[in-house]
Amino acid sequence: MNILGISAHYHDAAAAVVVDGVPVCAVQEERLSRRKNDAAFPLSAIEWCLDRAGLEPDELDAVVFYERPMLKFERILTCALRAFPHSWRMFPKAMKNSLGEKVWVRGIISSHLGVPARKVLFTEHHQAHAAAAFLTAPTEGAAILTADGVGEWATLSIGRGERNRGGATSISLLREIRFPHSLGMLYSTFTAYLGFKVNEDEYKVMGLAGYGEPLFIDEVRRTIRRTPDGAFALNLEYFDYHTTANRSYSRRFVDLFGPPRSPYEPIDLTTDDGRRFAGIAASVQRVLEETLVDIARDLRRETGLPDLCLGGGVALNGVANARILSEAGFERVFVPPAPGDAGCAIGAALYADRIHFRNADRDVPDHPFWGPAVAGDELARIAREDGHHVADLDEATLIEQTAGDLADGRIVGWMDGALEFGPRALGHRSILAAPHDVEMRDRINREIKYREQFRPFAPVVPVEVAGRYFELPPGGARLARFMSGVFPVKPEWRSRLAAITHVDGTARVQTLERDVEPRLYALLTEYGKRTGIPVLLNTSFNLAGEPIVNRAAEGYSTFLRCGIDVLVADRTRVTKRDSLFQKRREEVA
Amino acid sequence: MERLLTPVHRWIWRNPERRVQKLLRFSETETDGGRDLLRAAELTTDPLLRRLYLLHATDEQRHGLLFRRRAAALLQAKAARDADGGSAEWIPAASHGLDDLDVGRESDETMLAFLHVAETSAARRFTVYREVLHSDPGTQSVFDDILHDEIFHMNYTLTQLARVSPERHRGRLWRARFTRLWKGYLRVASGIAGLIGGAILTVQYFVVLPAFAWLAKRAMRKEPQGWTAIAPQRSDSMRRQY
Q1: For A482-496, what is each residue's pLDDT tens digit?
Q2: Structure confidence by residue, pLDDT tens digits, A277-286
Q3: Start-end of H helices in A144-233
Q4: CB contact B241 to A (< 8 Å)
């Protein structure tokens, strides 16, 4: 049975194909169109997925969209009605936006792919999140918690899933919290207030939180209160996102927290304003963590299950995930590599396979590498044409040379195998560097990422030795598999892992198993032999505002425009000759 | 044409808020253009064009940064927190940087002709802007700096077009001019259609919706806060869109 899953129209569109119950490929549209968080109907992603799976559209048994568009339209219309007459500006925009394309999904899919309309199916948004989290996790029964900004109506849902090997699967969502009460929207509102881009820069708030003291907790708690049944409700007087598309916070919110940060001014943590912003970030982060931990603890008590599957955009918050693991009572917490909307493409397809078509349960490969593969010969050709130094090396030499480069303080662009699905670079499209000193962190921020100084970098470490450097609680190594948890760096290693240790002594660790990524594992081992510490700084291979690179040509153009010293794609190694770009880069920096 | 519009441009640039908005919009357009050029560089099979596109992309991204920094400086000077104000926002912007050119599907000839026409037009406009901005030397020097690059962009695109399409490069240029004109018309037309649609929907909002709004508000007051139980049968069918 061949099923195509699609997510689109909000942010981060994606497509995935499931064949006989197992995903065979998945890719985000942004990685092909090169427009960050591309929300457009993912035609390129669909074409690539069908091509990769060797399928024609008429061979598809179903095409599954990740939410119910009419239900979503109902929510938008209802919110406009509830906010009458304050919603008069928002109403025409919302109607034009929805009625232009978004509610006609069945027709759009049918006409683009030429499949009969009866083959087009719909999951609920949070069902797709739940399926993406539960059906890809190596567990037979788990509690499920999904949380994001909003789907159709639900913003957070809880439930449980059960798999029987070779038998039936069930996913039961038991309760939900409905829009406008939303932890995702709460966090996004503070993201906007702090001058960052909503739906894109939430992780910056998490990074900034490390620099602040949670001195505004009482104020944040005035915007969100706990309900007697263990859920929460937002105090809507402080928010505007449910009445207008232009603002997410109200005048009262500004009265409570002070003037917002201008997105055009840098955050200076030595000023009062800078400290205030960091304090507000720390406070909302703390409240988010506490709310999630409470809900997860209740869920553990209710289900009695030892495993928890987390899904939705909020599950990208590694600090909250780590606290849930440590404090909610679960033995293991699973977060898929793409817990956000992109992952819903896989979730929707798997949900249709297991629940709608009632196909027997099958294990899903436990890795994130579902995208297009990189071609080293493409890199060799274009780099030679431009006169750069190119070497095609055997595996052992490549690993040795690259480990030597890293040990000598060079920054390496590393492209290997199939592209990751999801927002994290987990070793196939990564920028790697030595993790030992702060200068390296500052250099990458300054010459490559062109980003704020307060942003931390993540380490990658072989799973067997992770406990030597990081304080991983039971289940921590699993949570760190896809970089989904933030854990303390052991105090005795912080000075020697300064480039990846955040100001609060933590790091968003990736633990690596040899089978998941053998080449990177070999590189870590070789680097460990040379330096005594088999840990590398691993950050996504992209520049600020651009999606993670996909093809070798994209890695190459990124390599030329920034301070990466060495580029590796498959077995091709490239180093730069002096170029015109150096001057331009200095000007930009 | 741009010369004839000089009084309009003078009026637009005189207001500091409109100036900031214009600069921010230019920043976005230049950055988007840089991204599209980067894409072109990654897709072309011509090594010389790849290098030139990359250089051009880096220039555009630098221009985006210059515009943004200038807008930020003006904002800081004004201590303005909110740049929202009246502007010609009803005309949809050329949202994909290079006027909705589908970089992935265009030939190098089309790309170069389009770039040449776009750069020439931008250079003309920026020359007028520089002239009307004599009361703001900071912004004027940004345009000066960018105009210097635009001349290089205009020249290389024309030279390369003549190289890759020696027989038909003039025809390509005319086609690019017509396409640009057509897209400009479409933008204005869709802007007007948007205004009319918005007006009709606003009238409907106040005429048709009040009764439904009253019902919706009444229903909202009865809605319990906290958890809502999910009925098991709610998700029975995957064929429903609602």
Answers
A1: 999 999 999 999 999
A2: 999 999 999 9
A3: 183-193, 202-209, 217-223
A4: yes
